[in-house]
Design brief:
Pfam families: Mit_KHE1 (PF10173). Keywords: Membrane, Transmembrane, Transmembrane helix. By secondary structure, this protein is of the alpha/beta class. The chain has 12 helices and 4 strands, in the order H-E-E-H-H-H-H-H-E-H-H-E-H-H-H-H.
Length: about 325
């Protein structure tokens, strides 16, 4: 369990500065858009070991039972669906390729916050119930999860409060989304009776329900970690250097460039009321050229969706603030 904590970390990547004119959503107590990258420990080849560490009932000597996959039915089904979808994209024309292209466009319209949470697997993290039972938080072990952030863009006092507001809002949003698409599914099921034509509306509704459910469970898990004070802010000079360049703006910059260049990486900008801040029309802090640098900085796997998700987040942010 402790090893799971030590291998887990959260990276807060601000995409905009705080802006009173940023389109806000009810119940969100933050006026900045932030992309959160969740890094989890790798799944061990033998799942019985991880189960023993996270409080599973089976010991290390337990064996696979029957036909059930070792990684679990849900993970097996998800991996299989991912392979089938990837094969659609490799098809040479036909309805499979067209379906893949339309699906990718729909994926690009899915909120980047949902996609980030959906990729976060709580089963790979520490068991909250186990932490409470074993009382391992005795100060003798490293049981904290670092929340990495750029100090020139976020004050340490803001990091946890913004993450908590993020999780509170996402729990409500994805719970409602899950129930909505579960209601839609029965209405799309009869389309299966039509011969030849695949029931794409049914599969889309099922995918949306599953996506909302995974994001909901991940949001709940994050809230539990916050409630147990397991997440600790950690300033990163290396991440801060990514932001040390002229800011992106679609119009002439109205902010003073001298003040931004004189700020040290260790000194966050002074907080001021939104109505006293100067804003440009376009508040993007990052562009697509920064993505490879961030991926390399945190050693994100090449076969992960981190780069694609971050690029998608930048595109969506540009649309929201423009």
């Amino acid at each position: 369990m402790t090893s799971s904590l030590q291998k887990m970390r959260i990276i807060a990547i601000p995409l905009t500065r705080p802006n009173a004119r940023l389109p806000s959503v009810a119940a969100v107590k933050t006026n900045r858009l932030t992309y959160y990258q969740f890094q989890m420990p790798e799944r061990a080849p033998n799942s019985t070991t991880s189960k023993a560490e996270t409080g599973g009932t089976k010991g290390a000597g337990s064996k696979k039972r029957g036909w059930l996959p070792e990684e679990g039915v849900a993970n097996w089904a998800t991996q299989r669906a991912t392979r089938i979808w990837s094969d659609f994209g490799k098809a040479e024309g036909g309805w499979k390729l067209k379906t893949y292209q339309v699906g990718q466009k729909l994926m690009d319209r899915t909120e980047f916050e949902e996609l980030a949470l959906k990729s976060f697997d709580p089963s790979m993290g520490p068991s909250i119930a186990n932490i409470k039972q074993r009382h391992v938080l005795d100060g003798k072990e490293n049981t904290s999860i670092p929340l990495i952030f750029p100090p020139s863009q976020m004050a340490p006092s803001e990091v946890l409060s913004e993450l908590r507001a993020y999780t509170d809002f996402r729990i409500t949003r994805h719970r409602r989304g899950f129930y909505f698409w579960m209601v839609v599914i029965p209405f799309t099921a009869p389309l299966k009776l039509i011969p030849i034509i695949p029931n794409l509306p049914f599969f889309f509704s099922a995918w949306r329900a599953w996506s909302h459910y995974k994001a909901y469970k991940s949001s709940q898990y994050l809230k539990s970690l916050l409630d147990q004070d397991l997440i600790v802010p950690e300033a990163s000079k290396e991440l801060d250097e990514v932001y040390m360049r002229p800011q992106i703006s679609s119009v002439s910059t109205t902010m003073s460039s001298s003040s931004s260049t004189n700020n040290s990486w260790s000194q966050p900008p002074p907080e001021s009321p939104p109505n006293q801040q100067s804003y440009s029309r376009h508040n993007l802090l990052l562009n697509h050229d920064d993505v490879p640098r961030i991926v390399s900085l945190f050693h994100l796997k090449a076969n992960s969706n981190a780069a694609a998700d971050l690029n998608r987040a930048i595109d969506q942010t540009r649309s929201r603030v423009s």
